[in-house]
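User: I'll paste a sequence; please echo it back and then give the predicted structure.

Assistant: Echoing your sequence first, then the prediction.
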Amino acid sequence: MPGSFRDYYDKEWRIKLERKEYKTLERRWRSRWDFARKHITDNSMVLDAACGDGVLGMFLTQKQQCKVHGLDVSPYAIEIARERGVDAQLCDISGDSFPYSDEHFDAVTMLCCLEHVLDPVHAMREARRVTKVGGIIIVTLPNAVYFWNRLWFLLGKTSPDLLHINPGEGMHIQFFNYTNDFENRVLSQVEGLTTHMKRADLKNPKKYSRLTRGALYLLMKISPNLFAQYTHWILAKGAG
């Protein structure tokens, strides 16, 4: 893997985990973790592609008795993931082959990572390869055309959240909407996967009051491409 890519994410992870708002999991919680846990069966063999510091893997291991493997480009993140019980290995999912045999996992998670990689089609093909027939791939992507990002453009600016350029975040280099970007640009080039579920969501529902959260979910139901912050997919692998 290119050393510069590895070094970049190693630096970003070190900055990220020193930020005050990342000192507790409650502050940095994301709906993608809840979504993945809800749809992964207890005692599953799971691959968390781009596992980061292993938060999802920790909960799957401790709460659902799953065996969790992880891949990440950052040696620093891998070190922390291993401390959390994830069998993590160094891998750039954008170009490297995943170091596992075909049909090895019951579930593969790819949560907010494809927007960071140079070749999301390669990553999805590798995820499909290592998933068992009848298994699932869970994908989460930020919605680039969320209304807040559109407001920035109307003001003649680019949202830092869209680019993901705040300290410790790691820049976005791919952009997907809720409607069909992922399906047209990525899934259309990966055979053998069918969409079992697609859901619009907030990044961190816990940060809103019950009333505000309810109103935001209602708006997402009316116009998910405008109001969704995240899109979650469950993709099922068929035979052949």
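The chain has a mean pLDDT of 95. DSSP finds eleven helices and seven strands in the chain.
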